[in-house]
Amino acid sequence: MDLFKTYKLWPIEPVKGLGCKVWDKNGVEYLDLYGGHAVISIGHCHPVYVSMMTEQLGKLGFYSNAVENSLQVQFAEKLGKVNGYDDYSLFLCNSGAEANENAMKLASFHTGRSKVLACGKAFHGRTSGAVAATDNPSIQAPFNKTPNVEFTPLNDLDALKKHLSTKEFAAFIIEGIQGVAGIHVPAPEYLKAAREICNQTGTVLILDEIQSGYGRSGKFYAHQHAGIKADIVSMAKGIGNGFPMGAIIISPQFEAKYGMLGTTFGGNHLACTAALAVLKVIEEENLIENAAKVGAYLLDQLKGHKAIKELRGTGLMIGIELKDEYIGLRDRLLFEKHIFTGGAGNNVIRLLSPLCLTKDQAAQFITSFNELTA
Ligand SMILES: Cc1ncc(COP(=O)(O)O)c(C=O)c1O
Question: Which of 93, 95, 150, 314 makes a 20 to 30 Å CA pair with 125?
Fold first, then answer.
């Protein structure tokens, strides 16, 4: 059997990692400013993570959601203490797409409405509902196309008002920072106004913090830069530092009914242990403050660079839109300087490093970037 070829692969196989570094099977060292697609939050193979996971695996890796699991309760309590949403409740699942599916489904149950509004260029995942709310027809099969989803341009307040004033929408779903689109930050005034309009029209405000959350933006969630609260927040990626996990947190106004949401694997013993280890390390090592500080350093060093058309983002979620003559730089960073970065289209480099990136490692990137664009 061969693999179903839906990924364009780099000819590199990382086999070992530590902190912000990975090594390939030939022993070549790479600086990881990609974080395995924004997934590695506390760094590769953190010793606290490895020891907690190993210990739990030796006790019980999995049972079922039909029995009590105090690790889930511990995680909910801990998360509520650090994320500014202590009075919300937690539902655990396995991925980002699944988190958004549950968020949109819950909004629809709650309001009795069937439509969802999403932003232009949004990416919310690849399962049916999530891909329908993703503004990229090339990844929607005919099965996924639905009149129940409409799109509104990011940061266009008049368009948002017009859509939501119909009171047809169960939810407005928006990324804390648009990632796949190439790092586009919602204006704080837009988010504040969206909060107001959702209140006035009975629309559930869903913040997709799957890529931008968990400290990446320099606050626990990116939308907290705007000082607003969502009704539902979806998370995945960094929550498990590589162990597949998704979650939504849900405002107290939502009524839970038995059976309305469910999953076999979600919130299993290993996933919750991974999530507890991540929060422990984030707190003990002040990783959110580090993301803010090292991110600010990177932005400062890149500001006004001759190779850059536009620089966007905050914390360790940075989009570098290159001028045309520098397209191809991402591959050169990888193959000539051994630095992994993310991409968006062919002209945006996305920096999504683990939150433990040091200033020296950031400086290493800047030196390489300058050398390749000299
Ligand atoms: C903002 C956002 N939402 C949802 C998803 C989907 O997450 P997953 O791939 O875990 O299903 C992603 C993945 O890149 C994402 O960036």
Answer: 314
pLDDT confidence bin for 65, thresholds 50/70/90: very high
Atom of ligand 1 nearest to the CA of 97: 11
Q: 206 near 223, Cβ under 8 Å? A: no
Q: Give domain status of residue 91, yes or no.
A: yes
Do 86 and 229 share a structural domain? yes
Q: 242-279, pLDDT tens digit by residue?
A: 999 999 999 999 999 999 999 999 999 999 999 999 99
Report the separation in Å between the CA atom of 124 and the middle of ligand 1, taken as the mean of its atom positions: 6
Kindly give the number of the ligand 1 atom that is closest to the alpha carbon of 175.
1
Task: Report which protein residue has its CA nearest ligand 1's atom 8.
Answer: 96
Same domain, 194 and 213: yes
Nearest-atom index, ligand 1, CA of 95: 10
Same domain? For 82 and 173 the reply is yes
Q: Where are the alpha helices (DSSP H) in the chain?
A: 35-38, 47-59, 70-82, 96-111, 128-132, 157-164, 188-201, 269-284, 287-302, 329-337, 359-373
Q: Determine contact, residues 278/78, Cβ cutoff 8 Å.
A: no
Is any ligand 1 atom within 6 A of the Cβ of residue 225?
no
Q: Whose CA is nearest to atom 3 of ligand 1?
A: 124
What is the residue range of 217's domain? 48-284
Specify whether 345 is located in the same domain as 201: no
Decide: 344 in ligand 1 pocket, CB within 6 A: no
**Could you tell me the pTM of the whole model?**
0.98
Q: Are residues 238 and 358 in the same domain?
A: no
Give the Å distance between the CA of 370 and the centre of ligand 1. Answer: 31
Q: Which two tokens stand for residue 146?
A: 């639905």
Choosing from 284, 301, 336, the residue where a domain stops is 284
